[in-house]
Amino acid sequence: MDALRVLAAKLQKRPVALCDSNDVDGIASAALFKRKYPEGVVVLAGPSEVKKWWIKAFTWDFVADLPCPGKAKVRADHHKTNAPCAEVEFYDPEAPAAAVLAAKALGLEEDPVARELVEAAVQTDTADVRDPTVKKLDLAIRYGFAEEKLAAIEILAKKGLAALDEEPLKTMAARGEEKEKLVLAIAERVPPRETLFIYNPVHLGISYRALTIELQKRGAKFVNILVRRARRRYRLYCGAHKDGVYDCTKVAVPLGGGGHKYAAGAQIKAPLLDAERPLRTLVEMLKPDVVYVLGPCNNIGPRCEEIKLPESLDALMRSGSGER
What we know:
With 324 residues, this protein is of the alpha/beta class. The protein has two domains: 2-175, inorganic pyrophosphatase (n-terminal core) (Alpha-Beta Complex), CATH 3.90.1640; 190-319, Diaminopimelate Epimerase, Chain A, domain 1, CATH 3.10.310. It has twelve helices and twelve strands. Helix 6 (132-142) packs across helix 8 (169-189). This is Fis family transcriptional regulator. InterPro entries: DHH_sf, Oligoribo/pAp-PDE_c-di-AMP_PDE.
């Protein structure tokens, strides 16, 4: 469907953008593009999806908060693991958010709505959310569905954070607030330690990035969460204190991922005949004193300690489901 949308846009000579789907920074960058080019078409993708053949087949007018998709005219990004590649690069690994660079690339630095969106991206991407409205936007985007996010981009481009008073953002934010309660309940059960390695054998439909941030607020300096999303498919979430000695890229990059020193991740696929290897690999790499498991240990190893889940999530674990 997205490929057809881009093809139609190309035939109509409308500009096309590719932006990160996962967080406020990517969504804000997409909204900035739509503010500059209301007739433009936005496609949302995760970092691992830019390798898809159809994404690499097109020349993108604007790319933000993502690795190079192959052919791009302008790209705005701040991930040190994403090498520059576009005809015109707005690339600065020291920038607090890609949206800062996107606003510059699009000539919107003095636009009041754009400045509001950039500030929201900076607060969320640096895990320093001070504005309750930005917090609400963060929750909305974390738990929004793909079509909701595209609709949200349209209204954010026109109204900025005032869009939170309208649909679909109202429903998205309400959903996020309920999910946040589960994240806080889990964080409450995890022992306060400087370094934490957590394994989740079933995806629970929560934001694990939000969980890393919450655990850091409670004293952790280095958090790695490995989530098993299918029999052979895993996702790593890493969070580290920005001013500490730990570097998340040193964990994520060897596993085929990327990100920042203080936040990185990786999609990991296990070998066909060794579905447990990613867990063993992370244990060997991180050498944790203990592996904390969200749910039963189930022979994880002698260093395993179970974290009892809230009842609503425990039911999901028993049923073997939980992913939206």
